[in-house]
Amino acid sequence: MIGAVQYAYKQAGYYSDERRLMKILITDDEKMMRSGMEKEVKKVLPDAVVYTAASGKEALEIFGKEDISLVFLDVEMPGTSGLEVAKRLKEIKPTVNIVMTTAYPNYAVDAYRLHIGGYLLKPVVADDIQEELEHLAHPVDISETYMKDRLVLKCFGEFQASYGGEPLRFSRTKSKEILAYLTAKNGVSASKNELLDILWEGEGQDSNKSYIRVLVLELKRTLKSIGQEDVLIHDRNSYSIDPGKVSCDYYEFLKGNPTAIRSYMGEFMNQYSWGEEYIWDLENRL
Length: 286
Known about the structure:
- This protein is of the alpha/beta class.
- It has helices at 31-44, 56-65, 82-92, 107-113, 126-133, 173-185, 192-200, 205-224, 249-255, 258-263, 279-285, and strands spanning 23-27, 49-53, 70-74, 97-102, 117-121, 151-154, 160-163, 166-167, 190-191, 232-235, 238-241, 246-248.
- The protein is elongated and about 80 Å long.
- The chain starts with 22 loop residues before the first strand and ends with a helix.
């Protein structure tokens, strides 16, 4: 699934405006190849800003003006070859990710010899792009970057929730803890009694039953204020979140995202005592 690869890369903290979105440059002297590649890139990275260039010269001009994180570069072009352009791009910005595109597999040897990066055989399709994104030399972190229209949930370290680069504000800390616990459950429902046990550690269940409704309403209002009310699922006396509608480091870890795995430092929602129960499973997955 292409959606599984839509995690982003941490080169700046791209969030709410175009300057902070992941920027990609596609260079090919054939117009049909450029437009086809752009469509395939958008299938994988729908929010990315995509620039196109018809020559090495044009590519270098765009690269000099924009903060490009990823370049798809045709090997064979009139004038300056793609390999020569790649070397010049690396001189300008050593951390840029470059993926060579070619109809001839023998060019891959040259790309590897020059330590340029990956290569793709034409015609390039979305699945090929997805595969390359998983092996970039300089990962660009989408779960925290250009997911500008998603709720971002950070589980490693302290639990944090943000949207559009801004932290969510909760008037009640236990409303935030409900969101944290449901996030840890990864789509599995939690009953009202289960939430009572977690929030008050098995004490005062009867006296706090009505208060749970207040906390859930507060959580719903908070999510609705950012247009993310569909994240929370309420079915009679059980609650869950839809993992497919959030960006979360924990979920990316479970999918095997190498960037998320590297970001795990042995701490999981450490402001909550129940978070320790998840560490054993995370450690066993490493």
